[in-house]
Every structure is written in C-alpha cells, then in structure tokens.
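Hey, can you fold this one?
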Amino acid sequence: MLDTILAVLREGWGWTLLRGTAMTLLIASLGMCLGVAIGIAGAAVKTSGPRLAGLLVSTYTTVFRSIPELLIIYLLFFGSVQPVSDLADYLEWEDAMTGWFPALVGIIAIGLISGSYGVEVFRGALKAIPPGQIEAARAIGMTGRQRLTRIVIPQMFWYALPGTNNVWQTALKDTALISLVGLVEIMRAAVLGAAATREPLALYVMAGALYFLIGAASQGAFVLAERRYGRGMKGHA
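Sure. Predicted structure:
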C-alpha cells in the first residue's frame, strides 16, 4: 500500500488532493460562517421574537433537518443552474459559471444546513444563561447594549461551543457531497485520481487521512477554545 501511495504522489495527485483540501476548508468555513449567522439570528427570533417569525424559523429548521443533505444540494443546484447560466452567457461570465457556481452552491447549501442545526444550538445556549444575571445587570443600570456585549454574547458562545463543534464536523463531511455537482474538493480530487491511476484504494485512503487530520485538528481547536474561554465563564455558571 505504501509503495502504491508513493507512486500516486509521484504522479502529482498529492498536490491535487491538497488543492482539494483548500477548497474543502474554504467551502466549509464560509458555509459555517453563514450557518452561525443564521443560527444566532434564528435563535434570537425563537427566544424573544414575534410568534409568527418564530414559527417561520421552526418551519425552516424542521424542513432542512428532515431533507437529506444531498437532496438539498441537488435542489439548489438544479433549481438555479439554468437562470444563472443564462445570466452568465448574457454577461459573458462563462468562466465564473463553470469555476465558481458549484462553490457558491456549496457555501449556500452548507450554510443553510448548518444554520438549521445552529438555531437550536444557540437557542439552547441562550436559555443556559442564568436569568438572574440579566436581572442583576438591569438593577445596576447596565444598558441593553452593555448586557448584550458583557453578559449575553460571551456566555452564549461558550455554551454553544460543544454544539457548534458537532455542526462544524458535520459541515466538513457534507462538503464531500458537493463533489457531485462538479466542485473539486477532497472527494472529487480522489475520484479523479482513482480514475486516472486505477488505484482507488490508495486515493481514498489518502482522502480519508486528510479528512481525519482536518477533523482532529478542528476538535483540538474547539477543546482549547472551551478551556481558554471557559475559565472566565465557569464563575458565572
């Protein structure tokens, strides 16, 4: 196996996999940023927003958590590919269409999927903040902005860290599904390499190793974040 992997690397597929890794991280990171924004906004609405808005957020989370991720990607891709292609032809942006449209679909899909889980993660984090702290802050004359920046936001993010870690790990793995609409990330690079070298096992083992390294590094980063920022929060819990 080692000799086969070295032979594959000598053919240049290692660089292809590394470029795919960069694309995977880009799609997952941008999609996760969108998901966090959706999650925080949705959690705020469900916690203290209008009832109708809360119902809409609940409908969104139910729909996107019930439909398989691959189907969501297909619906976004095939539902928008024709109008976007027509617009690209009109503006003479064919290269952007072929190069970045699958990436854009991936970011939006990952964002919507992770956001549907993030809503509940951040809602739980908001509910975990002791109400007495908010009441005490009001009693000593803190403004709404001060309560938000000094009490709510720091504790919300700390309480949300474990759940956010799970959502991030899922988002990383979901990027592999974007390969089915033409995006060259880790999985697509491995498929192309397997077809060219006729060594699928070696390519898929290398792809699995890359996913593992990213996931393990991410897990370590979240654990460090919990320890570092938890020092100040534990006194308030």
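The chain has a mean pLDDT of 88. Let me know if you want another pass with a different chain boundary.
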